[in-house]
Amino acid sequence: MVSETVRAPTVPPTVPTPRKVAVLGAGSWGTAFAKIAADAARVDADSDPSWKVVLWGRDEAAMNLMAETGTNDRYFPNVRLPGNLEFTANQREALTGADVVVLALPAQVLRDQLVSVADAVPEEAVLVSLAKGLERGTGLRMSEVIAEALPGSEGRIAVLSGPNLAREIIQEQPTASVVAAVSDPSAGMVSRVCATPYFRPYTSADVVGVEIGGLVKNVIALCVGICEGRDYGDNSKASIMTRGLAETTRLASALGGRPETLAGLAGMGDLVATCSSPLSRNHTAGRLLALGLSVEEVSARMTQTAEGIKSAPVVRDLARRHGVEMPIVEAVTSVLAGEITVDQLQPMLLGRRLKAETPHGGPEGTNAPGQ
Ligand SMILES: NC(=O)c1ccc[n+]([C@@H]2O[C@H](COP(=O)([O-])OP(=O)(O)OC[C@H]3O[C@@H](n4cnc5c(N)ncnc54)[C@H](O)[C@@H]3O)[C@@H](O)[C@H]2O)c1
Ligand SMILES: O=P(O)(O)OC[C@H](O)CO
């Protein structure tokens, strides 16, 4: 537990102090992020009194138990949550007076959840998406879903993404992340509420790049999980990760994101963490697919959200609409749809026409090696 005497990193003087942070979603990441925000409130050097942090979850009995025991036993047994963290199953109560609203819900439920409480979301609140997925049916990123669900909120939306496995963070293992927003004050405020001695946020103006990095890596992690389930070694996994990052960067660029974002924490950083870790749900789901389980069996076995399963076909469709080649996403989507078996992944990926590694290394799309 972070000591009261440890101070958070210095915050630039222009960053406003929030009064209340509401975290919606008491699953794995919501709980870990609420702990970060509560720890940040305790160590923030300049705020006195510090901000309130409230964690909302839809299961009343579970929230009452959390309030009673100070732990979220379903997700993190034996981890004591900070004493200054409050718990509620009343979403409107959580939102009242909040100037930072953190959305820690799965991508496919975010819109309905927001629409159902739209009138209770304070007008000036900064809205932070933690989800790493694309909405089915619309193909929209979470920042776009929030803007549609809460008209007028466009300038106050932020996204947070990076190598952030909740189970490591809840143990205060050090990590870094990226907070992207179109407005500097929004990014600054969100950074302030999550700056702790074990969590270091960097700001960015590239919302598209940060979101695309976080959501596509889940699909790439499914593929790496499949490699692992088939007992392929590190060469195979490194090849998928590297080429996965190449196709992620192509998609982000086509949508207006910056390639350098994908070389950072929200791109390469998250990809490496997720694809290397047995803690990753997407990686685990891929491994189970390779062991012969059907998508339905894998989904039934996963007790936590593996976003890549639902986002893969949406990413593929988005890429096709923008004329972006994403062979790994195409192949994983075909496996998930039952169109090919995991045995057919290798010929599908390696049997493609030879080409240069990068567009600058030679004429891409021909047999010519990079020159
Ligand atoms: N767990 C991580 O390490 C991690 C890290 C970074 C980002 N994320 C992203 O955060 C998002 C949430 O993931 P998670 O790990 O917390 O998932 P989770 O499965 O652990 O928890 C999801 C929570 O959402 C709740 N929920 C589901 N449907 C709901 C609905 N209709 N209304 C209200 N609540 C509902 C569940 O009860 C649960 O508490 C995902 O997009 C994930 O990719 C997760
Ligand atoms: O467990 P996963 O696969 O959803 O990955 C969790 C985080 O996104 C890692 O940064």
UniProtKB/TrEMBL annotation:
Residues 206-345 form the Glycerol-3-phosphate dehydrogenase NAD-dependent C-terminal domain. One of its GO terms (molecular function) is NAD binding. It is found in: Cytoplasm. Its EC number is 1.1.1.94. Transmembrane segments: none annotated. Belongs to the NAD-dependent glycerol-3-phosphate dehydrogenase family. This is Glycerol-3-phosphate dehydrogenase [NAD(P)+]. It catalyses: sn-glycerol 3-phosphate + NADP(+) = dihydroxyacetone phosphate + NADPH + H(+); sn-glycerol 3-phosphate + NAD(+) = dihydroxyacetone phosphate + NADH + H(+). GO terms for biological process: carbohydrate metabolic process; glycerol-3-phosphate biosynthetic process; glycerol-3-phosphate catabolic process; glycerophospholipid metabolic process; phospholipid biosynthetic process. GO terms for cellular component: cytosol. Catalyzes the reduction of the glycolytic intermediate dihydroxyacetone phosphate (DHAP) to sn-glycerol 3-phosphate (G3P), the key precursor for phospholipid synthesis. Pfam families: NAD_Gly3P_dh_C, NAD_Gly3P_dh_N. Keywords: Cytoplasm, Lipid biosynthesis, Lipid metabolism, NAD, NADP, Nucleotide-binding, Oxidoreductase, Phospholipid biosynthesis, Phospholipid metabolism. SUPFAM superfamilies: 6-phosphogluconate dehydrogenase C-terminal domain-like, NAD(P)-binding Rossmann-fold domains. The active site is at K217. NADPH binds at S28, W29, R58, Y75, K132, A166, R281, E307. Residues 20-181 form the Glycerol-3-phosphate dehydrogenase NAD-dependent N-terminal domain. It comes from Rothia koreensis. Pathway: Membrane lipid metabolism; glycerophospholipid metabolism. NAD(+) binds at G25, A26, G27, S28, W29, G30, A166, R281.
